[in-house]
Structures are given as structure tokens and as C-alpha cells.
Amino acid sequence: MPTLLLNRLAVKNLIRMSEVITAVEEAFRMCGQGKSNMPSKTYLSLERGDFRAMPAALPGCAGVKWVNVHPGNPSLGLPSIMAVLIYNDPDTGYPLAVMDATEITAYRTGAAAAVASKYLARRNSRTIGIIGAGFQAYTQILAHAELFSGISVNAYDISQTAVDKLVRSLPQFSIRNCPIEEAAASDIVCTLTPSRSPIVKRKWIMPGTHINAVGADAPGKQELEPSILKQAIVVVDDLKQASGSGEINVPIRQGVYTTGEIYGTIAEVVVGRKKGRTDDKVITVFDSTGIAIEDIAVAKLLFEKAQRTGSYPSIDLV
Amino acid sequence: MPTLLLNRLAVKNLIRMSEVITAVEEAFRMCGQGKSNMPSKTYLSLERGDFRAMPAALPGCAGVKWVNVHPGNPSLGLPSIMAVLIYNDPDTGYPLAVMDATEITAYRTGAAAAVASKYLARRNSRTIGIIGAGFQAYTQILAHAELFSGISVNAYDISQTAVDKLVRSLPQFSIRNCPIEEAAASDIVCTLTPSRSPIVKRKWIMPGTHINAVGADAPGKQELEPSILKQAIVVVDDLKQASGSGEINVPIRQGVYTTGEIYGTIAEVVVGRKKGRTDDKVITVFDSTGIAIEDIAVAKLLFEKAQRTGSYPSIDLV
Fold first, then answer.
1. Strands A152-156 and A174-177
2. Are residues A83 and A105 in contact, defined by beta-carbon separation less than 8 angstroms?
């Protein structure tokens, strides 16, 4: 039995944001129904970067994503983050596919935020604030555009070049370069920076805003003033990961926020065990750290598409 | 930059037991010198089997082995254990190779036991007792033959067919089919069964014997009567793994053995911080659970060999 090989180009050809959103929402639903299996991420920390092993299983699929974060890579002409995913038959363990997961990571992160916005943002949301116009900004915009029609984007970055590049790369969207306080005053705000101090002020956030806090993914990282969390309904993707390395990790460590204040998980919201947005005034926050079931769900989608087309290479790997 | 693909056939072509032994011994030495990095294995447990993510780094290399154990596979014509290894540049995270690790697992397990025998068995050991003549038996014999000249093998299995197959498959070695008590009365004894009760009796073990206890690799598994451990010098590959899932796990749980009785790790012995065998009478036990630095060390060896030959395929994976 051969193992399918999907490199980054193949993944780019196969991947569609609308399908990724459906797959990620379904993964959250299965998680909420107790049908997922996801041990904690394991970190391998080295001198110049780290690696994370992210295993997970959902009905009909299993696998592991192995992803690095090497901040010095861009100076060497390499991406900071590269990921490979081994996709297995859960019933036999057979490695059905080895695929690039760099694109998967970007797409599923955008999709997870858009799914959170679907349940937590106001239905009539029209403006998206992008804070941090790097790699993640593209998929946040693509994903939200699938679920919110006629959106316009307020984009801020400390680098003017990054915003210019974003505007040029997505000519089909209305993207306006603006100061951070204007981006933060949007209906839906996506924070996508590697910040280690709260760059988004409470006073900029309007009543009824939904915030996707995506940037914080390691201990010490933080983008929002803790007073935002204190007044918001906070939904996390994973309680343990969010508490340890998500947006809430620093406030928890500082004792200004407790895990008891977390409203619930996105899985609980999607499955209906916890209500989503109930009024137009409350501020909601989705603390997204990125979880392995998102990756595995998208891997399943791509594997099955690739199998149907029959035009991708495979090898007798094991 | 391309990613090298080494399938099982390529690994079979490239792998040499003598080189694997050198690589594994060097990995233990680097571990003893504090130069290795190895987080705990992560388990993903499913209905019909489980997967283990085994990340590790040594100087100049990093990676993860993703290996399944599905006991029902043979009835489907598939191996119970299949493994894939992603091999990375530790300085950039780039995935340099994706390789089959099924052969690597078998070879490094044999090599680790042989390295333990080098330091712990009597130098004049001439007989190897094989208890359990399955897949692992082959590499135990190959590895010990590299370090002990003129050995003869006493092989036992509950299945006569398994022993017959072993004898036929390794015609270059003197292998005698015998009862378990005779296999256990060898100079070096390798226990390689999935037993969940002590099948090797204390009374069968001669003074001066070295035992490689390899079979126990999960909670509840056990091959040796605990009285053997109580009277032996016990060396483990990894304190945490051995205590939780190695030969000593059941006696520890039963309260008849404590981690305080462990003599040390094989890394401490190889690096000289703990002495190996000091007299001809003591019984020594190596509790081998299989550790990720063994796999990564062998992956580095194979990657570098494959690169030198230049005749293996590669793809632009990420």
C-alpha cells in the first residue's frame, strides 16, 4: 500500500478556504461530542528555535503535525515556520500520506478564527480589524470573507511595507491602512502579532466587538490589555494550551485573570452546550492557540480530495 | 531545498548493524554528557492500537519518530508496528528527510541491547539466550554477533514455527531450539516477548548473567521474576519510561521494587560516570524501553550516507 505525498504546491492546489472552514467547524463539533482524541503538544526546545509534535485523532483519521518555529530563519531566506504532517489510518496505523502542513497551519488558523466569529461576532459585522499584517493576515481575511459578506478591512502593522504587501496581494478586498486604534475599533478584531506586551487598549474596543486573539502562542506572549478579558466573554480553543501559552497566559501568571473566568471552549459553543453571542453589547474574545484536531481535519479533507483526483505521487514508504 | 525520501527498501539498503551500534553508543555518550534533548513520548491511544510521538535532538540533528502499535494488524496482512521519521536541521527546522523508521526501530533496539551487553555482560560471554523468536530476535542476534565473537544462540518461543523461521533466516549463526530454562541459562539473555507475567524464573539465571529485558514497553508488561531485579544491578535506558512502562513498571506498582534501587542509566555507564560490570558473579539487567535519541542518531547516520551516495529521491516538500 503506497503513501501519498502532498508537497506544499500540491496542498496549495487542493486547499479551499470554504472547505477548510467546514472541516474545522466539524472538528470542533466532534470535539464537543467527545469524539476527538488530542494529547498535549510536546515541545522540543533547541538553541535557535523549537519543534512541536501535535498528535490527534478524529473519527476516521489520525496523525501528527511536526512544526518548527525558528525566528531567525527569514534572515537565511527560509520561513520561520515549516510543518510536515503524517496522516494515518487510525484502525491500522498505516501512514496514508505525508504532506506539507505549512499551508494547512495558515488556513486552519484563519478558519478557526472565522468559525469563532460565526458564533461569537455580531451577525451584521462589516469591518475586520487586522492587527499585524504578516503571513496570518491573509488567511484571516480569506476565512472571514467566506462567512461575512461585504466586509472591509482595517489593517495595521508596525511595518508599512507589510500592510502595502497585504493590500497588493489581496486586490479583491477593500483593505485600508490605518492606525492601530482604528483597526481595534472594528466589528471583528484579529490580533496576529508576536507581542509580549498588551498593544491593544481597552478604550479602543467598542461594545459588541468580537476579538480573535491569535498571536499569543507561547508563555509570555500577550496582545490585549487584561481589562478587555475581565469584561469579555472569553472562549478558548483548548483550556490547557490557552492557560499555558495563549492570550490569557500572562494575566493568569500575574494573578489578574483566572481559568474560572473562562466562559468555555469553542467546541462547547459549536456543539451548543454553551451559547454563542446573546446580545449586541457584550465583548467576546476567542483565545486561539491552534490545536491538532484542526490540522488533522484539514489533512483528512486534502487526503480524500487528492485520492479522488488520483494525480498526486505516492511511494512505498514503510 | 529538497527533502530526501528514504523508504523501507532504501533504509534496508543503507543500514549496517555495525554502524548502528556505533551511532547508538555515541548517542548514549552524548546523553551522558548532557548534549541530548528528549521530551517524554506522547501517546495517542485509539480503539485498535496506539501511536507514539518520539521527538529528540542530538548535536547536529533533530526530529520525531511517529510509530504505531496495532496488535490486530497481522490478521490483515500488515505489520503491527510501522514507523515514519521526520529528520530536521536543528538550526533552521528544515525537514531534511522523511524516512521509514520500521527498520530503524528494529536495528536500534538490537544495537541498544548489544551496547548494554558490551558494558554489562561478561567479556567472555559465548551464549545468547533468545526468549521470544519474533521480529526483535533477528536484530538482537545481529547486534550481539558484532560485539561478541563466536556466539551460539539458545532460542525459545511458544511457537515452534517462529524458532524454525529464525533458524532458517539466519543460517550464518549457530541457533539451537531449546526450552525456556535453557535459553535463560545463557551468558547473555534477551527477553523479547509481549508477556504480562514473569515467564523467566530466578532459579534459571546463572551467576554472572546479563539480561536485556526488551519486551516490556507498556504498563502491565513484565517478563522477569521480580527477585531477579532485587538481586541484580539494574540499568535503564530512561528512568521515567522504564519506571512507567519498562520491565520494572509492574514490580514498582506492586511495591516490590523502587526506583531508588535502579543502579543508573546506560548513558551514565557509557560515559563512565557509573561503572559497568565489576565482577563475574553479579547479575546485570538492562531495562530497554527504546528511546528517541537512538532513532535520531540512526536517522542522522542514514541521512548522511544517503546524501553521500546521491542516488535517493527527494521532493520539494515544504
1. parallel
2. yes
Residue A234: which H helix or E strand, with range?
Answer: strand A233-236
Q: What is the ipTM of this complex?
A: 0.94
| Percentage of chain A modeled with pLDDT above 90 | 97
Nearest to B44 among A51, A62, A82 (CB): A62
Q: Is A65 noted as a catalytic residue in this protein?
A: yes
Residue A100: helix, strand or coil by DSSP? strand
Distance from CA of A116 to the nearest CA of B (A): 27
**Domains of chain A and CATH, by start:** 3-104+293-315 (3.30.1780.10), 110-290 (3.40.50.720)
Mean pLDDT, to the nearest integer, of B277-295?
Answer: 97
Q: Helix, strand, coil: what percent of chain A each, to 5?
A: 40, 25, 35
**Span B3-28, average pLDDT:** 98
Per DSSP, the three-state class of A66 is strand
Q: How many angstroms separate the CA atoms of B192 and B210, rounded?
A: 14
What's the CA angle centered on A247, arms A242 and A251, to 5 degrees?
A: 100
Phi-psi region of A77 (alpha: psi -120 to 50; beta: other; left: phi over 0): left
Q: Nearest residue of B to residue A100 by CA position?
A: B318
CA pair distance A82, A67, nearest whole angstrom: 6
How far is A245 from A218, CA to CA, in rounded Å? 4
Provide the number of CB pairs (under 8 Å) joining chain A to chain B: 161
pLDDT in tens, A88-146: 999 999 999 999 999 999 999 999 999 999 999 999 999 999 999 998 999 999 999 99
Contact A69, B92 (CB under 8 A): no
pLDDT of B217 reads: 87
Task: Report yes or no: B28 and B115 within 8 Å, Cβ to Cβ.
Answer: yes
Q: Give tens-digit pLDDT for B54-93.
A: 999 999 999 999 999 998 999 999 999 999 999 999 999 9
